[in-house]
Design brief:
The complex is a heterodimer of chains A (314) and B (354).
Chain A: H1 3-9, H2 20-26, H3 35-59, E1 62-65, E2 70-73, H4 77-83, H5 86-117, H6 124-130, H7 139-149, H8 156-164, H9 180-205, H10 210-217, H11 222-250, H12 254-259, H13 271-281, H14 285-310
Antiparallel strand pairs in A: 1-2
Helix pairs in contact in A: 5-9, 5-11, 7-9, 9-11, 10-11, 11-14, 13-14
Chain B: E1 4-13, E2 16-26, E3 31-35, H1 42-50, E4 57-62, E5 65-66, E6 77-80, H2 92-102, H3 107-120, H4 136-148, E7 154-158, H5 166-183, E8 186-191, H6 194-200, E9 203-208, E10 211-216, H7 218-223, H8 228-233, E11 240-249, E12 252-257, E13 260-263, E14 275-280, E15 286-287, E16 293-302, E17 306-313, E18 316-323, E19 333-337, E20 344-346
Helix pairs in contact in B: 2-3, 2-4, 3-4
The chains are: A mainly alpha (314), B alpha+beta (354).
Chain lengths: 314, 354
């Protein structure tokens, strides 16, 4: 007796009652001959993910020789160079600063706005819908907008900050070492905080009302309820939002590319910009690939540490 | 310890009125059960007591003080919710001790009191577990321990047993009542289950469509229901109802319907010839060879200790409760009698007791 026949003969197997062609169609789902079904996905993964990754790794052990116009094997030279490359370490520092500051502000601000918008009063539905607006703008355009708005001559942000006395007369926000990174961060925070708000709102609105009512009766104040009930219940949602945004923020490219090109000096010179410049400006494909790989490895390490750390018991 | 008083309470959701002019007072230490079908306003009344719903009009007093505007956290009320409302992110011990944590009770004492409360409901070994690791009955106990540890003025229960299986429900009924007898805290308990109301209550408040139908002890509601609705709601199996008229044979009044002739108490003041609805509780219908009611036995339903006899009397369905050893046979004829003082007469129009 074949396995199929045995399975079909099994007590109450519903497939036994199906017509033969339908049974044949369903067979792959039962575990036999599953490959044809998986093939499209496997092929896509191979072409679009696995191959580029392997090629990138291969590339990091080679370098383009401009005069001979070919890739040549250079061993671990790229990796050794990277180790003593101050420019690389500098850009890593900028990337981490950007990463922690932007993520923290988006997280805190996102939660605060989400709590404010979590209401059934009339009008709040519209406010929540408006949140998606910043998300449909291409980041490069947002970068251009903030570049113009922070222009010391006619930019509205510069004007307001000068009027408030936060910055000096004609202070060029994006062209000063002290404020350029903050200027770039502003664009990111403006564009992506609503994303955090949307995720947090979805989380907040799906929370059961009873624990909150119970906590009220137990005598908890709104702050205590937030700290002991809302925040722990939202932990998984927060973790997902931080993970998604974290990966995005770490490899941020558009804003610096459009707004500062890494300057002034190296004050906004992030890792992805460095990789881009090595690869496409200096045609050092191997070195560019090496920097990207480091970026990937760092993201993997941070993300996995985070997932491990953020695991909840309840 | 506290009294709870409702004075002319009205509640509207938007323009929809769910409660009108309801007045009720609950004495200190009393176990009051709000009983009614879903939508009758019993849970709304409970949630208003807790402060989870606003009072549209009227006064709500706890211990003589008007609390309409007092937020829930300042009312000193403990509540057990229908779906327990445990804090999912806290262990059993943390759940129970949360109110103490809020009141800044020292950690050691918190621990001690949580352990005491947990032991009282038989959860001693589960203190470190999370709610999702517990069964429904255990969660229910955590919710109770959480309320007990509070030593609040008033305990509120919102259908706390409706998610449990029958056996556990009976056990928890007993435990909640015992708990009340031990602590003596004023308790308001909402249920749609008349058995819970009958077994636990000092006072039953039967509600219907946002108003109170009858307030009384379980015995009062069972023996002297004020209306056909109250009579029908209390008791299982439900009361039998027959439409007929009152007739007077000299000075001996009787209830007469097709195939039925029953003597009424002499003291009755209903005018002869009046149409009435007569109610008879199934256990009051007694098998009696000389009985005046003759019925055909359709089905004998065994419940263990006794038998529910489903009868057809002159084309009308009746249920009588008999002892299990009653010599009856499906399809056969049986004769039944009722003591005159066990008959309940209601006005066919208003449904009020006569």
């Amino acid at each position: 007796m074949s396995r199929t026949a045995a399975a079909a003969a099994g007590a109450g197997a519903p497939s036994a009652r199906l017509p033969a062609p339908l049974r044949a169609l369903l067979r792959p789902l039962s575990g036999e001959g599953a490959f044809p079904w998986l093939a499209p996905l496997v092929v896509m993964l191979l072409i679009f993910t696995i191959y580029p990754l392997l090629y990138n790794i291969w590339l990091s052990f080679h370098e383009y020789a401009p005069f001979r116009r070919q890739l040549e094997f250079v061993g671990v030279v790229n990796w050794v160079t990277l180790w003593s490359d101050t420019r690389f370490w500098g850009s890593l520092g900028v990337t981490f600063t950007y990463f922690f500051v932007v993520l923290t502000i988006q997280l805190v601000l996102g939660m605060a706005i989400a709590l404010l918008l979590d209401s059934d009063e009339p009008g709040f539905g519209l406010l929540r819908a408006l949140l998606t607006l910043t998300l449909v703008i291409p980041p490069a355009i947002t970068g251009m907008m903030f570049l113009l708005m922070q222009d010391p001559e006619f930019g509205v942000i510069s004007y307001v900050l000068q009027a408030l006395g936060v910055i000096g007369e004609n202070h060029p926000i994006l062209a000063s070492r002290s404020t350029a990174l903050l200027g770039v961060m502003l664009a990111d925070i403006w564009q992506w905080t609503p994303f955090m708000v949307l995720i947090f709102l979805a989380g907040l609105r799906s929370l059961p009302p009873e624990p909150f009512e119970a906590a009220m009766l137990d005598g908890a104040s709104p702050v205590q309820i937030f700290r002991r009930i809302t925040l722990p219940l939202m932990w998984k949602v927060i973790a997902v939002a931080v993970l998604i945004r974290g990966i995005d923020v770490f490899r941020m490219f558009d804003y610096v590319f459009v707004m500062t090109s890494g300057g002034p000096g190296t004050s906004t010179y992030v890792l992805s910009l460095y990789a881009w410049q090595q690869t496409f400006s200096f045609i050092k494909w191997g070195y560019g690939a090496t920097i990207s790989l480091v970026s990937l490895i760092l993201i993997l390490i941070i993300a996995n540490l985070f997932i491990k750390f953020a695991r909840v018991r309840w | 310890m506290a009294t709870v008083e409702y004075r002319n309470i009205t509640k509207r959701f938007e323009s929809f009125e769910v409660m009108r002019d309801l007045s009720l007072s609950i004495a200190d230490g009393e176990f009051a059960v709000l009983l009614g079908a879903s939508g009758c306003g019993k849970t709304t009344l409970l949630r208003m007591t807790a402060g989870l719903e606003t009072v549209t009009a009227g006064d709500l007093l706890i211990d003589g003080l008007r609390v309409n505007e007092v937020p829930p956290r300042d009312r000193d009320i403990a509540m057990v919710f229908q779906n327990y409302a445990l804090y999912p992110t806290m262990t059993v011990a943390e759940n129970i001790a949360f109110s103490l944590e809020i009141r800044r009770v020292p950690k050691a004492e918190r621990r001690r009191r949580a352990e005491e409360a947990a032991a009282l409901v038989g959860l001693g070994e589960h203190l470190a577990r999370y709610p999702r690791e517990l069964s429904g009955g255990q969660r229910q106990r955590v919710a109770m321990a959480r309320a007990m540890v509070r030593e609040a003025k008033v305990f509120l229960f919102d259908e706390p047993l409706s998610n449990l299986d029958a056996k556990l429900r009976a056990q928890m009924r007993f435990e909640i009542r015992q708990l009340h007898d031990r602590l003596g805290t004023t308790t308001i308990y909402v249920t749609h289950d008349q058995i819970e109301a009958m077994t636990m209550a000092d006072k039953i408040v039967l509600m219907r469509g946002g108003t109170i139908e009858q307030v009384g002890t379980p015995d009062e509601l069972y023996d002297r229901p004020v209306s056909r609705f109250a009579a029908d709601f209390i008791g299982s199996p439900a009361m039998n109802f027959v439409e007929g008229t009152v007739e007077a044979n000299g000075n001996a009044p009787a209830f007469v319907a097709e195939g039925i002739h029953l003597a009424l108490p002499v003291s009755l003041t209903v005018a002869p010839g009046s149409p009435v609805v007569c109610g008879i509780r199934p256990p009051d219908l007694v098998l009696n060879a000389d009985g005046s009611i003759e019925g055909r036995l359709v089905l004998a339903e065994k419940t263990g200790p006794d038998v529910q006899l489903h009868l057809s009397v002159a084309g009308q369905d009746f249920i009588a409760t008999a002892s299990r050893d009653a010599a009856v046979e499906a399809g056969g004829l049986v004769r039944l009698s009722v003591a005159p003082d066990k008959l309940h007469l209601f006005d066919p129009q208003s449904g009020r007791r006569l």
